[in-house]
From TrEMBL:
This is Thiamine biosynthesis protein ThiS. Pfam families: ThiS (PF02597). InterPro entries: Beta-grasp_dom_sf (IPR012675), Mopterin_synth/thiamin_S_b (IPR016155), Thi_S (IPR010035), ThiS/MoaD-like (IPR003749). Transmembrane segments: none annotated. CDD domains: Ubl_ThiS.
Amino acid sequence: MQVNGQTHPHQEGLTLLGLLGEFGVSADRVAVMVNEQIYPAGQILDVPLQPGDVIEIVKAMQGG
């Protein structure tokens, strides 16, 4: 599976919220795309992940 363009090992039973926990990321502060499915911040479901999934985690950045 790929996360933000990098190969990431898939573990049996891994879920999307579990993956975010591995990265220390709060589901309320990021948007996630799994393959073609988009999950807005605060609406991320705890879906099971598959070995071939492509995941993009997008953090909101503040700046000027």
